[in-house]
Write a structure and sequence with these properties.
Layout: H1 3-13, H2 26-41, H3 49-64, H4 72-75, H5 79-99, E1 104-106, E2 112-117, E3 129-138, E4 143-146, H6 147-150, E5 154-157, H7 163-169, E6 177-182, E7 203-212, E8 225-226
Parallel strand pairs: 5-8
Antiparallel strand pairs: 1-2, 2-6, 3-4, 3-5, 3-7, 6-7
Helix pairs in contact: 1-2
Amino acid sequence: MRLGICTAVLLGLVGFQANAQELKTEEDKTIYALGLSIGRSIKSYDLTQAELDILKKGLTDSATGAKPAVEMEKYLPKLQPFAKGRQDRVGKRFLEDASKEKGAVKLPSGVIYKELVAGKGPSPKATDTVRVNYRGTLTNGTEFDSSYKRNAPAEFPLNAVIPCWTEGVQKMKVGGKAQLVCPSDKAYGEQGSPPVIPPGATLLFEVELLGIQGQTMPGAPQGGGKK
């Protein structure tokens, strides 16, 4: 998470404090929705309850004009590496949990592959062009892409996408569906894919293999879109 975003999130939280209140008006409900949105934004910090209490103190001191307990000039530059460290921790735990799911297989690259629906057709090679439907989410459940929502399957050379896909989709058979959990170094790495995929993000995909270009698959949907 970038420093500017961190600062905006923390300042935004000042507008909604932790004391429980009834949501009596539409404005109250809107402010509450703002709190939910901001809470999701800082989920990657993986804060404990004790750390949330420290965060609330910082917000209160800032909002009331109290003297800061730390020097801002010293600690503001620490926010970005702190966020990165916490995001790495969340991603590692997500991968560990995914690898323990029934039917999950951890590939040598670190990608977690789990068959959801068995296919009956052929498996593609890295040099093949495939047609798929897919849904991609971050570890916090935020959906960042979906061919289902576009109502248009994607078609692309399998060796022209992220390494997680190149490896994982080759394990599938046409007509099958699988879950791929991609470590950041097998996805978009430290650069991410702004604004939807943050740097160093672990990603979760559900992929449905509809077809392989040049091969006839009885019953497979026709047509498709480009990613």
